[in-house]
Amino acid sequence: LSRPAHPGEIAVLPSASATALSRFPSPPDLVKQALVIGEHLADPKLNAVELAACAQVMHTVLNLDETLCKE
Fold first, then answer.
1. Residue 60: φ, ψ to 5°
2. CA–CA gap between residue 67 and residue 58 (Å, rounded)
3. How many CA atoms lie within 13 A of 3 on its CB side?
């Protein structure tokens, strides 16, 4: 079940990305924890901080908390 994103939802994505990027550089362990989740290992050629921040934004886009907790 999905729907198109509303313009207001799309408008917050740049700030969500900036917020995610600002959170990850300080604790390196947080970046490592974010990148070990999933079926595949992260490509070591990619910037780990940017990848973790992107994953956080995608989590927001997909709204996994609501999707996974839906009864």
1. -65, -45
2. 13
3. 7
Cβ atoms within 10 Å, residue 52: 22
Distance separating alpha carbons of residues 28 and 19, to the nearest angstrom: 16
User: 16-45: b or e for each residue (b if 16 or more CB lie within 10 Å)?
Assistant: bbeebbebbeeeeeebeebbeeeeeebeee
Smallest Cα–Cα separation from 22: which of 60, 65, 56, 68?
A: 56
Q: Residues 12-68: pLDDT tens digits? A: 899 999 998 888 776 678 788 888 888 888 898 999 889 988 988 888 888 755 555
Which pTM value belongs to this model? 0.72
What is the C-alpha separation between 68 and 53, in angstroms, rounded?
21
Spatial separation of the C-alpha atoms in residues 21 and 53, rounded to whole Å: 5
